[in-house]
Write a structure and sequence with these properties.
Oligomer: heterodimer
Mean pLDDT of chain A: 87
Low-confidence stretches of chain A: none
Helix content of chain A: 55-70%
Number of strands of chain B: 32
Distance between the termini of chain A: 20 Å
CATH class of the largest domain in chain B: Alpha Beta
Radius of gyration of chain B: 36 Å
Structural class of chain B: alpha+beta
CATH topology of the largest domain in chain B: Beta-lactamase
Largest sheet of chain A: 2 strands, antiparallel
Strand content of chain A: under 5%
Largest interface: A-B, 47 and 40 residues
Low-confidence stretches of chain B: 1-6
Chain lengths: 375, 756
């Protein structure tokens, strides 16, 4: 299978954008450590993961994505078992467990589950590409989503379930869902979200949400002005960090919010605030631009894909990066409730970065196998 | 694998375009928000970021020291040791922390664990209760870099041990906290006062001046209150950058160093103060033992002053309180005990309590009667033991059997023996010397044809006020009372009755409605002693800075403002001398503010000279009705000399009220002059004992004496509450204080003479 690969169509723009984003992320993590010794090892870790990730891109790109399509059963089973055991271990420690410890590494199966879901959905939409777009077609895809998402929902990790639903929704749209069905789903969705917000605003507990999740929503809808060190603290500090950065920022390593540690979880969830503070509007727009560049190259790959599976992989990865990125930035800017989704390629996190690199590798694999126009 | 490319599904272009549209919309929202935060609202957020890291740290200024006139320390600051733990500096390992807690616990006797964090929240620092672990846990959650006080005010020995051991205990330290210390304690508590926390009503004012509520203390009584603006100094200020844990990283602005408060030197001589206190307490104890019961002579006052300068040399108000017990915090039970005590130990009775002056008030009546020509040096007044007067509420009231009122002299009934003769007949000087009531009734209120027109209440009031009664003296101590010189109008307003002839009689001997503070009574004596010159009583000798340089300060008694004379540079670049209000530097004057007087460097301030300053308003009197004319006159120097002669006779004449005490009990070689007083009173205590009836009235004992007679340099007033007779109870106190004064003087001369 590796015999006749042509690197001619390997998307170096995509690779370049990813490398740039990752390098920028690592640099920002270094600044965000801000003298916290516990965070110090995360700089090198991220560098190792980034380097390994780039290698991974090449390996995955070299492999025809259709092999993964064929292996959908083992992929599903492995992912299912991992998530199931993660759920069980979470029950054992009476709390949310997000990772397995493997040696010194903390592996977060959820991150990989999103890539697995893209592959599974790509296979499903490829297989059913000529079937009518009826409710049965939608429900078939929904079953795949729920098979994995259920365990994540029970972890509980609502944000990633939302990510998976969004990927599913985007792919349904691009695979030609009927408008009336879309309206139906949208109606149910709006009703669901609306009732969650409404009940939260009224202070009624919702059984499927963790208390802290509902608290976050509540803080978003009705911020408590007097609460300086409460739940709104992180978001307030993020706003101060971003706003005080101004046009050109305070300079690398000179952000007072970051360096004096007023900004919390500044190497993961709030790294966008840290970079906005130190590099200003110029820096934050540059990061958005690089992420958009990655997304654009993924979309381009999707449109040129040889088959429906390839198209869906590329669209799926693009949706994943776009949604996660925008939600993360939205949280930083306090226009979205706190969610805990990392900023793609920038935030610290080995599993997240590796999973994304895997996704990029898949997109590269699609790109390398475009429709053969030059006979 | 599906390899078919024919019939492959293709996404409609409009669906892709709509997807792009959504992306662009989301991007626009984020970009708009970023631009508004980072460009439009930047200023707001930068300010908040600065608020986050910029902290002002106030470094406390050491409070000024209070000295007596000889440089003896009356109030100082001393180091108090607190054992503290800084949570952030504790080791990482929980086992190490527990080890430290256990070892420290054994040393300082504070349990490792007691209650939980919620329990610890109930206690303020320094109050024992929660365990070490709970206090540290609470502190850690609030401000990990702020030391938590584990035990306060440990001994120096223990502090040293902990400091040595702390080398192996990261996070544990010994904190030194300045605490006010009063070496003379209760001896000078009523003068020096004590400190307390900045209270709610003045919080804003003090915070605006850079003081820190809950840390800095302000005066609550005495000199600590009145001289607060001098003693406080200026707190230092450091503007620093802190991180989220509160750790100070660097100065953002050049720091302002704290300025120590200035020192106050009092006019008090602690040795004389001690002598006065001892004399008073021993006299009270003697009489209480003599009558074999706690004969409610429970409180007393002794004041010694230099009549020529107004310097207060001693001011004892007994009982008082131990101000060292208030040094760290004011203990509630102790404060309650003091405020519930009927003898009012928290009050400086020398200035803050009003008593009937009794016969010492005769100095006013005598001055007035002589100066107004009611009596001449050659006039003889008949002084039987008892006088019967028509009590008239208006001049036309008829004299009937119903309004006959007896007035007796103090020698009328002695130990059950009736003396109808009384003093017989006396001249003006012996009226003073023997303190004849009948004589002064006549001088004050007139009597039949003998003295047709007495001094009268209006003119009596003029002379009393000229001697210092009826208004605050303006001394630099808080809580001064103004006493009371009654007028007919006052009586009508306050009792609804007309002024009667009897009222004038009893007012003439300092009874009835007349009230004065012990200081006012001392001032009246000082005016006579000092040939009519009333000096401003002062307890401040000077204000010094840390290097002993004397600072010019003026004091305004009206509102207790203090003004320092400073060289102020005006906008024009010109430097002028200005009187700057110490509590409000914006309030400054080119001249001494009206109503203020200089307290430092020391200068005797003349309040007035009754022989020079027209203080006596002239009244036009006609058959009992007197109208003020609005014109004023002076007291003739011969009047003052006549009254002085009378006070000297009190000692030198063998029947004088002070003769026995100053010639036999305490033989004086120096010529002493004075006046006794035995003031009947009726207050809540006496009313309860059912003694407020004719003939059974309890009496306060007063004595006033000055020496040497020709050129007095000291005047002493003693007061014993419910003391009985002035001559037998208060006079020995005065005598002992005078004795002590002249002994100390000779010691001082010997010492300085030995050097020269």
């Amino acid at each position: 299978m590796l015999r006749d690969i042509s690197w001619r169509y390997f998307d170096f723009w995509l690779l370049g954008a990813v490398v740039l984003a990752t390098a920028f992320g690592t640099t920002m993590i270094r600044s965000a450590v801000a003298g916290n010794e516990d965070l110090l090892p995360s700089i090198n870790r991220q560098i190792y993961f980034a380097l390994a990730g780039i290698v991974l891109i090449f390996i995955v790109a070299a492999i025809d994505y259709r092999y993964w399509m064929a292996l959908y059963r083992p992929i599903f089973i492995v992912m299912f078992i991992l998530l199931f055991f993660l759920f069980l271990s979470a029950q054992a420690v009476f709390g949310a467990a997000r990772w397995f410890q493997v040696g010194v590494l903390f592996v977060q199966p959820t991150e990989f589950a999103k890539i697995a879901l893209i592959l599974l959905l790509a296979r499903y939409f490829d297989k059913t590409q000529n079937e009518p777009r009826d409710l049965k077609w939608i429900f078939g895809g929904f079953l795949w989503v729920m098979a994995l998402a259920l365990w994540i929902l029970l972890q509980p990790n609502l944000s990633n379930v939302v990510v998976m639903m969004v990927i599913f929704g985007a792919l349904l749209w691009l695979n030609g869902i009927q408008i009336k069905h879309l309206a139906l789903i949208a109606g149910v969705g709006i009703l669901l979200v609306g009732s969650v917000f409404g009940l939260t605003a009224l202070g009624i507990r919702i059984p499927f949400l963790q208390e802290y999740q509902q608290q976050r929503i509540e803080n978003f809808i009705l911020p408590n002005e007097e609460e300086t060190f409460g739940e709104t603290y992180n978001v307030d500090q993020a706003k101060i960090a971003i706003g005080s950065g101004g046009l050109f920022g305070k300079g690398y390593g000179h952000g007072t919010q970051t360096q004096l540690r007023f900004l919390k979880v500044r190497h993961t969830d709030f790294i966008f605030s840290a970079l906005s503070e130190e590099f200003g509007l110029v820096g934050s727009m540059a990061v958005i631009f690089i992420i958009m560049l990655v997304i654009w190259r993924c979309l381009r790959a999707a449109q040129k894909a040889r088959d429906v599976a390839g198209m869906n992989i590329a669209y799926g990865v693009a949706t994943l990066i776009f949604f996660q990125g925008m939600v993360n930035i939205g949280v930083n800017l306090n226009i979205v409730p706190v969610s805990g989704l990392p900023l793609p390629f920038i935030s610290y996190g080995g599993s997240g970065l590796t999973a994304l690199m895997l996704g990029i590798g898949l997109v590269e694999s699609v790109a390398m196998r475009f429709k053969q126009l030059d006979f | 694998m599906s390899s078919q490319t024919v019939g492959k599904f293709q996404t409609s272009t409009w669906r892709i375009l709509l997807m792009y549209g959504v992306m662009v919309a989301v991007m626009s929202v984020l970009t708009y928000r970023l631009v508004s935060l980072q460009v439009l609202e930047r200023e707001t957020w930068v300010n908040q970021a600065v608020d986050n890291y910029k902290t002002e740290i106030s470094d406390p200024a050491p409070r000024g020291i209070i000295y007596d006139r000889n440089g003896y320390i009356l109030a100082r600051n001393f180091a108090s040791y607190n054992i503290v733990i800084t949570p952030a500096n504790l080791p990482d390992d929980e086992a190490d922390i527990q080890n430290i807690y256990r070892e420290l616990s054994a040393l300082i006797d504070v349990p490792v664990n007691e209650g939980d964090v919620e329990y610890a929240k109930l206690f303020t620092a320094c109050v024992p209760g929660p365990g070490i672990a709970q206090m540290v846990e609470l502190g850690d959650s609030l401000a990990p870099y702020t030391p938590v006080r584990i035990k306060c005010n440990v001994g120096e020995e223990l502090a040293r041990v902990v400091r040595e051991r702390a080398v192996d205990w990261p996070g544990v330290d010994v904190e030194i906290e300045p605490v006010r210390d009063y070496p003379t304690g209760s001896l000078t508590a009523n003068i020096v006062g004590f400190l307390g926390p900045i209270y709610e009503a003045v919080k804003d004012d003090y915070e605006a001046r850079g003081f820190v509520t809950n840390r800095d203390k302000i005066g609550y009584a005495g000199i600590e209150t009145s001289m607060d603006d001098v003693l406080l100094g200026k707190n230092g200020l450091r503007v620093v950058q802190v991180d989220v844990a509160g750790q100070v990283l660097r100065n953002l602005e050049p720091p302002i160093e704290p300025e120590a408060g200035n020192n106050v030197v009092l006019t008090i001589d602690t040795r004389l103060q001690k002598a006065a206190e001892t004399s008073l307490v021993e006299e009270i104890d003697y009489w209480n033992n003599y009558f074999n019961r706690t004969r409610d002579i429970s409180s007393g006052v002794v004041i010694a002053m230099n009549p020529k300068t107004g310097e207060i040399l001693a001011m004892v108000s007994y009982p008082t309180y131990e101000n060292n017990r208030m040094a760290r915090f004011i203990p509630g039970y102790y404060y309650d005990q003091l405020s519930n005590d009927p003898r009012r130990p928290l009050v400086n009775n020398a200035i803050s309590a009003e008593f009937p002056p009794g016969s010492v008030f005769k100095l006013s009546t005598a001055t007035g009667a002589y100066n107004e020509g009611v009596v001449g040096p050659d006039d003889i007044i008949s002084t039987p033991g008892k006088l019967t007067l028509c009590e008239r509420f208006s001049p036309n009231d008829p004299c009937t059997a119903l309004n006959q009122r007896p007035f007796v002299d103090w020698i009328y009934e002695r130990n059950g023996v009736i003396n109808e003769e009384g003093f017989g007949a006396l001249d003006f000087f012996h009226c003073i010397a023997y303190s004849s009531n009948v004589c002064f009734y006549k001088l004050g209120g007139g009597f039949e044809d003998e003295i047709e027109e007495g001094l009268g209440i209006f003119r009596l009031g003029e002379y009393a006020r000229a001697l210092g009664y009826g208004e605050r003296s303006g001394i630099q101590l808080p809580g001064e009372e103004d006493g009371l010189i009654p007028t007919p109008q006052w009586k009508r307003i306050n009792t609804g009755e007309n002024w009667s002839t009897g009222d004038t009689y009893i007012a003439s001997v300092g009874q009835g409605y007349v009230l004065g503070t012990p200081l006012q009574i001392l001032m009246s004596g000082a005016t006579i002693a000092n040939h009519g010159k009333l000096m401003q009583p002062t307890i401040i000798r000077e204000i010094q800075d840390g290097e002993g340089r004397v600072i010019p300060v003026w004091f305004k008694p009206e509102d207790f403002s203090l003004y320092e004379v400073q060289d102020v540079e005006l906008d024009s670049g010109e430097t002028v001398k200005m009187w700057v209000n110490l509590s409000n530097p914006d309030e400054r004057f080119l001249n001494a503010p009206s109503g203020s007087y200089q307290i430092s460097p020391f200068t005797p301030n003349l309040k007035w000279d009754i022989t020079v300053t027209p203080k006596i308003q002239i009244y036009n009197c006609d058959v009992g009705y007197c109208d003020p004319t609005g014109t004023y006159k002076v007291v003739d120097p011969s009047t003052v000399e006549a009254v002085r002669t009378g006070t000297r006779l009190a000692v030198s004449d063998s029947r004088g009220t002070l003769h026995e005490i100053f010639t036999e009990t305490y033989p004086f070689t120096i010529a002493v002059a004075g006046k006794t007083g035995t003031a009947e009173y009726c207050d809540d205590v006496a009313r309860k004992a059912n003694r407020c009836q004719f003939g059974a009235w309890p009496t306060h004992a007063w004595t006033l004496a000055y020496a040497p007679y020709d050129d007095p340099e000291i005047i002493v007033a003693a007061f014993a509450y419910n003391g009985g007779e002035g001559g037998s109870v208060a006079a020995p106190i005065v005598a002992r204080v005078l004795q002590a004064y002249f002994e100390l003087k000779s010691i001082d001369i010997a010492q300085s003479g030995g050097g020269g």
